[in-house]
User: Fold these one by one.
Assistant:
Number 1:
Amino acid sequence: MNLHEYQAKEIFRDHGIPVPPGKVVTSPDEAASAAREFGGMVVVKAQVHSGGRGKAGGVKLAKTPDEARSHAEAILGMQISGFTVEKVLVTPAEDIATEAYVGVLVDRVSQAPMFMVSSEGGIDIEEVAHTNPDAIRKLAVDPRYGLLPHQAYWLANSLYDDAGQVKQAAKIMGQLYRSFVAAGASMAEINPLIVTDAGEVKAIDAKVSIDDNELFRKPDIAAYRDTSAEPVAETEARDAGLTFIKLDGNVGCCVNGAGLAMATMDLVKYYGGEPANFLDIGGSSNPEKVVNALRIITSDPAVKVILFNIFGGITRTDDVANGIVEATKQIDIQVPIVIRLTGTNEEEALEILQRAGFEAYTSMDDVVQKAVELATQG
Amino acid sequence: MSIFIDESTRLVVQGITGRDGSFHTTQMMEYGTQVVAGVTPGKGGQTFEGPDGAQVPIFNAMDEAVAATGANTSVIYVPPAFAAGAIMEAADSGVGFIVAITEGIPVLDMARAHAFARDRGVRVLGPNCPGLISPGKAKVGILPGQIVTPGPVGLVSRSGTLTYEAVHHLTRAGLGQTTCVGIGGDPLIGTKFIDCLEAFGNDPDTRAIVMIGEIGGTDEQEAAAYVQEHIDVPVVGFIAGQTAPPGRRMGHAGAIISGSAGTAAEKMEAFEAHGIAVAKRPAEIAELVAAALEGASVS
């Protein structure tokens, strides 16, 4: 789960990281009054789950409250990589002497939280990693000890020469690590970490992604979820205990297991079609799950055909077939459904489905080809 | 032969009294796995009723179970909140191999648990994995026994049902398996492709290897380089997620393209560059294995 900048800053502030004050608003007038409150120059920043906000015109400097109002008017409602801007953050502008990058993420190779810092801040770190990898200092933290003081200094020393700035930055490294662990993050990033003209080290942007597996034990973090920032169907799917991701095609996919679901989407593409979604329905034959899945898939008007691909391992496929038949009685479906079931008791399963009037197959290639054919005809 | 588990496996089930734990314990016993103990805190002294009147003693703690039964392998079906703790308890109990089935364990918990197990020299498979099966000998986890058959192919995969799909085609083509290993869909897993490749490489009965990967991370790329240097038998690869959008978690916590890294295209290129035959469709996996084994026996 991605957090908005203002949410990430709240977490950072709670752990003592120096972050400028800010106000989140949803209307131009509120933006103007926030600017008046802060006095002086402010920055108006789009709050969306996307990088590249600056390039898209979602971050603007305002010298007066009137200017803040007109910037907010332009930014609110703007589309940034598919997301509509619903909120802006108004925050005092800082004088920037230098910009650095500080991030921590869960690294698969070292199997530990990994710090990455660079004195080349304010830009895309992936770009720096590519063009100038020597400009990045990395450190894997042993999660049993946390970030040790000398490690924090080792990171900070690569950013600054000034002893005072090194000391401030080392303290921020420790606070960032504690924020990361406390929030159950998979990634936490300050970009840029600035030094002001007065020599103060501050975080003026913040990005945090939460490990979804932490949410069950962190209700305060789970409450940060902004459902307006995701497709309605994905919110509904999560509430129904399904994993659903909307895509741009017209073949609705309903599959058991994440790997098989991905492979099914790939096979749709292989045979010349476009998948409309990723959906993992899990291993159960529960008709309610199937009803929810069908409701979610068919809420997308682009869907021309629904493709089931179920490999019954432990689950008996005749149970799954009965579940599908039951589910389709409970919901009105306007598009054809093609079904592939294989595994234990597959002959009985096919009979059940064919009796109920469905096209049923045991081969994944056959069913996907049929689905693509139906989608292109319709 | 087989890797990691066989007839000598003496299994303890952590979470044996839970819904999944009890169901799969019965399935494993029906397959012929020696389940010697169960552990559920607070239920020590009770007995689990297996198939055909078999009785499995339940203990409160792992050390007691291992001391009383000589268990050498553990499988974990406990809920996410307690699973990392269960792994560390198992790593301290004297078993040499831990199979963690549980899905949804917080990644920072796993960073600690993996470090703890590594320090003790204990192998962890998973978490968020279907386990493994050595056909005709033993199964640990949730893989369905009826789709496998003994034979010369070693299979390692990050996925569950996609593994079933591939095994189903192999079995139907008359290509049996030495061991099928599901290494799990999490970002931090204890046993990686390379560990399985090394074990299969040392198994004289494994005459071909299937590797089923997916988007996210660089394990497949590292494994591809390992294959070229260390593996003498033919290797067939498949990667799921060619149509997955970047930045989205595709069901598995580890199946995510971060920035521009970890794409299916990148992994398939690495496979091809290192002499691994890449299947374009799941059904093609068995076809490529059959062709490779035929070629190998001719040469």
Number 2:
Amino acid sequence: MVENKMKSFVPEAGTCIPWKIKKEEFGVLAGNEEIVKSSWEMLDALAYAFIWFWVQR
Amino acid sequence: MSKEALSKAMAELEEEQVIALVKELLGSGVAPLEIVKALQEGMVEVGNRFERGDYFLSELVMAGEIMKGAMDILEPHLAGESTEHKGTIVIGTVRGDIHDLGKNIVVMLLKGAGYKVVDLGVDVPKEKFVEAVKETGAPLVGMSVLLTSCQGALKETIEALRAEGLNPKVIIGGNYVNETVKKHVGADYFATTASDGLKAAAEVFGA
Amino acid sequence: MSDKEKLFQERFKRYTVALECGKPDKVPVVFPLGEWVVKYTNTTLQEAYYNVDKSNEIIGDVIRDLDFDVMFGAINLWWPPMFDGMDCKLYKFPGIYFEENSGFQYVEEEYMKAEDYDEFIANPTQWLATKYLPRICGEFAEPGSYRATVALIKGAAAFAMHNDKLTKTGEKWAKEYGIVSATTGMTKAPFDTLGDALRGTKGILLDLRRRPDKVLAACEAIVPHNIAYAMITAAGDTSLPCFAPLHKGAYPFLSLEHWQKYYWPSWKAVIEGLWALGKRTFFFAEGDWTPYLEKIAELPDKSIVFCIDLTDAKKAKKVLGGRFCLYGGVPTTLLTYGTPEEVKDCVKRAIDELGGDGGFVLAAGGVVMSDAKRENIVAMIEAAREYGVY
């Protein structure tokens, strides 16, 4: 089961799945980590804004 | 335990105490209408405290909730008993607007003060106001509105009443109504707080 | 630099100098955008809500020949297709629920129940995603189902599309008309976040007596989120203030004691948190805030722009003036029921009373809806230029 490998965590404000959680799951990255990280965080912030949008009216 | 204690507990918003006292008084054979009267006295005090600036909306909402809990217990015992009242008032939030917080608070305080209130709810078309005034012959109509974009409906509703030859006094209520809006829509009174509404009712019914 | 770009720089400076409590060359004046612009066209309100390009055309026609600095408001704060795609219950728009020329309405319910407090407090973002969204959206009735998956894709796509459109529109107003946006980003007071769309007005007001500790804990849990949400929605911008529509902190919702205990500390923490990041808050005080002015004055100098709706303007000037920029001066009801002459007099008075020494932005104090008259808005803008030269 995939679920069993996923750690439970409380994302800090502004994040849904913080990079440091996902990086652990990815393990060692073969290429440029910075590029992966910044794109991950950009989309994660968009998801965060989407989730909170409904109560920030 | 006395009815005075119930009035006091109601005024102090002591929810558990009110419920306990209502049950106790019922159990000891006090007439349900007497209990309602005691609750209403407490509610009048709540209104007075709001008027004095000791209570705020939060307290009024709580008072409404306690009253509702008490009435849920009392209603089965009230079947068939008719209460005397000071007069009938028709009230509703006008067409296009679904805000009811202010309206519900005024309804609660008017009932507490002994009026019979016909609450038409929210988003009420002018025809419904006309019909209700015809049916009840109410000398006072309350029209609630929060959104400024729905204030046009006040004018239309008042005109519809007048066109039918109905001449109850009309009070408009809401956060953004004032003398200008009152004049523009052709109302008799305006109210920005629940106590303004009570004062107008007292004037109309000479109570 | 094009003429429009120069104009933009000039207006941007005028506005931001005032925000800093300084004295610009003229009193900055704000164009109140709202549904009223649609009333003067053949377009229905429904079409304007749904079709952003169409509403932008309408706005373009209205503002083309007007000389103002800043634009505030929107025709379509919310884009209905996004709500339709998820069958979201929070709003009713013209189209499905109302006839074509009605405005929208918010449908308030206790979408979060009293028993949800602990779970929400422990992990707010996860609770919203897994518990709240399925409750407010018909299409999410069975999370993970075909219907729910499709709806989520649509909702997220619509969110990204609409945000992108808003950004591009802002750039267009700046570039083609030299107009500055009043705010960037959005946030709220934690008590309002909890009370508006989660517990509901009645719910939160009763909670103050039935479970006050939960209210406090939830507001505290929301603080970092409202700081983060502001910065994400502002795309990091700190040159303009963050829009914060405030609701239940207005008089007479809460007694001063309750206000100080439940409304203010967490809201103050958000404002101070943003200020520490260099972000000012657009304190959009809808309704009357007069009794709380002294507490508001505790904020760090210049950390907010205080918007005067029904608050006592003279008292606001006395308590906050000089340390915080004041915004407003023209009552929204005057824009509906007044005459251009009355509006002009009001503008003159407002500038005399509130704007004498700078730190003032002339604007409508509240939300201008479909009822406003075009001639009054034009009179307001023209009078601002006539009387507003320092």
